[in-house]
């Protein structure tokens, strides 16, 4: 039996459904999903294993122009995603008319096969879907187009079948019982960050970063110590809230999800600290795990 394996990189604008797609394909909640843009800052790998194949999906941050250092770092993740792909899944949503032409050119130049997925077709009718297919055939010549609903897992089997045809013969890249390459701490910090995004408006979430300082497994409980770094004292105050009500609400929601994720009781100790200008500070970015050149 010939074994196939390879990297499938999911690329698209913010909010088109990249993380939802990867979760549906992998069948576990590996990527965080929220309705706010820019939530996926790091690359996250999701593995799907079969007897004779291994698909390594990678979810990348949304495509945007870098306008401060954090976004530059995010764009580097995208560049690295462009380099190591065997197949691209370029994802657009119904109603969307274009993707950054530089990105299209970049992808075409690699010569790597592209499946262009038109997502969220559950939100529209067949006529509009057919029109969208015709539109994208002209916009992205050479890409194979597949309409899907990542959320409702509609037509994903067509995507998987096509991927298995396109992947090269290769041994597996990762042990077959692993779901992902990221550590427990990473997922816990992502869960907490998701709650920050859901609980606060405007500039607060985008200036926040979460670091899990301690992860101690005891007999009947897991003790987790995490710090949320924000850019300004005013943001720290907002996050704590009146009599600590806001941080308490956030902590409760985060603890609930973490307990589900680790399948154990969790004690969560959350601290909020001010770390000015971390987004523009190379050293701080390194500390929080962003790749630097
Ligand atoms: P990302 O920024 O590209 O990773 O997008 P997400 O996966 O975080 O999804 C953004 C939003 O679109 C979320 O609210 C999802 O629930 C929603 N979404 C994703 N796929 C679908 C879909 O097939 N249909 C509908 N109706 N909503 C979707
Ligand atoms: Mg995402």
| Distinct ligands | guanosine-5'-diphosphate, magnesium ion
- What class, by secondary structure content? alpha/beta
Number of strands: 9
- pLDDT under 50 segments (min length 5)? none
How much strand content do the residues show?
A: 15-25%
- Overall body shape: globular
Going across the major beta sheet, what is the strand order? 2-3-1-4-5-6
Helix content: 25-40%
Descriptive keywords:
single chain, 293 residues, alpha/beta, 3-stranded mixed β-sheet, 10 helices, 9 strands, 23% strand, globular, binds guanosine-5'-diphosphate, binds magnesium ion
Summed up, what is this model?
By secondary structure, this protein is an alpha/beta fold. It is built from 10 helices and 9 strands. The radius of gyration is 20 Å and the shape is globular.
Which helices and strands, and how do they pair?
Layout (H helix, E strand, L loop, with lengths): L3 E8 L6 H9 L17 E7 L2 E7 L9 H15 L3 E7 L7 H10 L3 E6 L6 H14 L4 E4 L8 H11 L17 H16 L3 H4 L2 E9 L4 E9 L2 H8 L4 H18 L3 E9 L7 H6 L6
Parallel strand pairs: 1-3, 1-4, 4-5, 5-6, 8-9
Antiparallel strand pairs: 2-3, 7-8
This protein binds guanosine-5'-diphosphate and magnesium ion.
């Amino acid at each position: 039996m010939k074994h196939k394996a390879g990297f499938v990189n999911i690329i698209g604008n913010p909010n088109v459904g990249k993380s939802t797609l990867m979760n549906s394909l992998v069948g576990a909640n590996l990527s965080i999903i929220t309705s706010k843009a820019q939530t996926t800052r790091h690359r996250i790998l999701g593995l799907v294993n079969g007897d004779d194949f291994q698909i390594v999906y990678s979810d990348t941050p949304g495509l945007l122009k870098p306008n401060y250092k954090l976004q530059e770092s995010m764009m580097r993740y995208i560049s690295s995603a462009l380099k190591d792909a065997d197949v691209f899944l370029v994802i657009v949503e119904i109603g969307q008319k274009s993707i950054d032409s530089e990105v299209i050119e970049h992808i075409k130049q690699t010569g790597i096969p592209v499946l262009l997925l038109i997502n969220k077709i559950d939100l529209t009718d067949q006529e509009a879907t057919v029109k969208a297919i015709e539109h994208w055939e002209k916009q992205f010549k050479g890409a194979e187009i597949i309409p899907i609903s990542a959320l409702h897992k509609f037509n994903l089997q067509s995507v998987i079948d096509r991927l298995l045809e396109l992947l090269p013969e290769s041994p597996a890249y990762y042990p077959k019982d692993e779901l992902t390459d990221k550590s427990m701490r990473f997922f816990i910090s992502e869960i907490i960050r998701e709650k920050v995004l859901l609980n606060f408006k405007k500039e607060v979430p985008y200036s926040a970063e979460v670091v899990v300082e301690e992860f101690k497994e005891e007999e009947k409980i897991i003790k987790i110590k995490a710090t949320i770094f924000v850019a300004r004292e005013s943001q720290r105050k907002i996050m704590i809230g009146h009599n600590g009500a806001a941080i308490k609400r956030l902590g409760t929601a985060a603890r609930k999800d973490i307990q589900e994720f680790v399948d154990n009781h969790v004690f969560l100790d959350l601290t909020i600290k001010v770390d000015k200008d971390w987004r523009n500070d190379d050293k701080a970015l390194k500390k929080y795990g962003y790749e630097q050149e």
